[in-house]
Amino acid sequence: MKFIAIKTDDGRIKGEISFFCKMLGISREGFRKSLINRNKPWKYKALAEEMRAINSEDECNDTYGRIRMMLYK
Predict the structure, then answer these.
(1) Residues 33-63 pLDDT 10s
(2) Predicted TM-score of the model (pTM)
(3) Which of 3, 57, 63, 65 is the most exposed place for a label (fewest CB within 10 A)?
(4) CA nearest 30: which of 59, 58, 1?
């Protein structure tokens, strides 16, 4: 993820944000949104866990992809 490169080890942002964003090829708005949304839960987390469960049911199911997986509730 490109946004991680802008922050220092202790979590502070150092330097000119607009310069870093220009060098990384990202927008300042995109950087700000990533800071706002970094602590929000991922909206597809439950779906991803269900897909992992389907994939781990059988060790020979390497051919399962997102198209072959269907969840019925």
Answers:
(1) 888 888 888 888 898 888 788 777 767 666 6
(2) 0.41
(3) 63
(4) 1
Residue 6 has pLDDT above 60, yes or no: no
Distance CA 51, CA 71 (A): 9
Helix, strand or coil, per DSSP, at residue 29: helix
Reported as a pLDDT band with limits 50, 70 and 90, residue 29 is: very high
Amino acid at 7: K
Contacts of 3 (CB under 8 A, 6+ apart): 26, 30, 31, 34, 35
- Tokens of residue 42, six digits: 């991922």
- Distance between CA 63 and CA 61 in Å, rounded? 5
Helix (H) / strand (E) containing 50: helix 45-57
